[in-house]
Amino acid sequence: MRGIGIDIVEVDRMAKKCQKPAFVKMIFTAEEEAYCSAQGNAPQCFAARFAAKEAYMKAVGLGWANDAQFHEIEVIRLESGQPKLSLHGNTKLHFEKEGYSNILLTLSHTSQTAVAVVIVV
C-alpha cells in the first residue's frame, strides 16, 4: 500500500452545488453526469463520486494547488456493479510516473452523507 484517502460529503450540500451546470461540468465526466442523473438518488450518487475523487487526491497527495482536475478522475462501474476509478489526462500521467499499480475504491451513502475510501498500491 502506498497511500490511503477517505472523504465524506454531505448530500444536501452536493445537491445544491449540482444545481449549477458549470460545477457539474468542472467536476464530473459526461458519463458520470448521465449515470447519476438517471438514478433515483442523484444527489447521493454525485456526492459519492465527489467523495471518491477527493479520497483519491488525498491518497496520492494531489490537490487543487497541484492543478488536479476532478473531471480526470472518473468513477465507473464494473459489470459486477463494483465501483472503480478510471484516470485520464495529467492525472493518469501522474499515476504512471509515480509507479502506482492499482486503485482500490469503496463507496457508501445514506440519504444524508456519502463516503469513499481509496487505497493506492
Automatic annotation (TrEMBL):
Single Gene Ontology BP annotation: fatty acid biosynthetic process
Reported function: Transfers the 4'-phosphopantetheine moiety from coenzyme A to a Ser of acyl-carrier-protein.
Domain of life from the UniProt record: Bacteria
Family: Belongs to the P-Pant transferase superfamily. AcpS family.
Gene behind the chain: acpS
GO molecular function, one term: holo-[acyl-carrier-protein] synthase activity
Gene Ontology annotations for the cellular component aspect, listed alphabetically: cytoplasm
EC number: 2.7.8.7
Keyword Transferase: yes
Residues annotated as domain 4'-phosphopantetheinyl transferase: 3-97
Protein name (database record): Holo-[acyl-carrier-protein] synthase
Cofactor(s) annotated in UniProt: Mg(2+)
Gene3D superfamilies recorded: 4'-phosphopantetheinyl transferase domain
Keywords: Cytoplasm, Fatty acid biosynthesis, Fatty acid metabolism, Lipid biosynthesis, Lipid metabolism, Magnesium, Metal-binding, Transferase
Recorded catalytic activity of this chain's protein: apo-[ACP] + CoA = holo-[ACP] + adenosine 3',5'-bisphosphate + H(+)
